[in-house]
TrEMBL record:
GO molecular function: metal ion binding
UniProt name for this protein: Heavy metal transport/detoxification protein
Length: 71
């Protein structure tokens, strides 16, 4: 399993609650987390499927957030 990281516009626990249904649907509950302490608000996603990267970005966009993959 690989951890893919994204810089996001998620800012608080309320934002996390908003994105939870979409991210749970895309990659499954307990397979992602957001570091709200990080200035970049890094979203870490555990996946074995590279196609999930696009789906994660799409799910965040659907509820008004942005995500950019970081290497």
């Amino acid at each position: 399993m690989e951890t893919v990281k994204f810089k996001t516009t998620i800012k608080c626990s309320g934002c996390v609650a908003t994105v939870t249904p979409g991210l749970d649907e895309a990659v499954g509950a307990n397979n992602w987390q957001v570091d709200l302490q990080s200035p970049e608000k890094i979203l870490s996603v555990n996946t074995t499927d590279k196609e999930k990267e696009k789906e994660v970005i799409q799910k965040l966009q659907e509820v008004g957030y942005k995500a950019v993959k970081v290497d």
